[in-house]
Automatic annotation (TrEMBL):
Gene3D superfamilies the record matches: ACT-like. Chain A, domain 2, Met repressor-like
InterPro entries: Acetolactate_synth/TF_NikR_C (IPR027271), ACT-like_dom_sf (IPR045865), Arc_rbn_hlx_hlx (IPR013321), CopG/NikR_regulator (IPR050192), Ribbon_hlx_hlx (IPR010985), TF_NikR_Ni-bd_C (IPR014864)
Protein name as annotated: CopG family ribbon-helix-helix protein
Keyword set, alphabetical order: DNA-binding, Transcription, Transcription regulation
Keyword Ion transport: no
UniProt xrefs under Pfam families: NikR_C
Keyword NAD found: no
All residue ranges annotated as the Transcription factor NikR nickel binding C-terminal domain in the record: 55-124
Species this protein is from: Natrinema soli
Amino acid sequence: MRTSLNIPQEVLDSFDDTWQAQGLESRSRASREAIHEYIERHTELEAVEGAVVAAVAFDYEHTLVIGELHTVQHEFEDIIGTTQHLHHGEWCLETIFCSGQASRIRELVYQLRDFDAVGRVNVMFLQPVE
């Protein structure tokens, strides 16, 4: 099946450089792999249940979203234990360390992903073995 996407040129250039450096045969093949990885990551995020500890790392353009991010973090203070923040020009990298129900941490992840000025949001869960 054919499809079309609107992707900023600099993102497409970086994607092309990456799949070509890895020796894949085509952009289509690389796109299929990227879609599969996205599905796996999303499925894993949805599958975690119960009490967990998590690290949520994300990057964002500071001036465009800092006020809204502070508001979100206050809304989730019941699960946020601490944060780490690193400035890099106009962009920042932040890690939020959480503990609580996986469903609540998922809510936080989805809210962070809703901001246009947030680049990527990655989460790592640690779940106690029973």
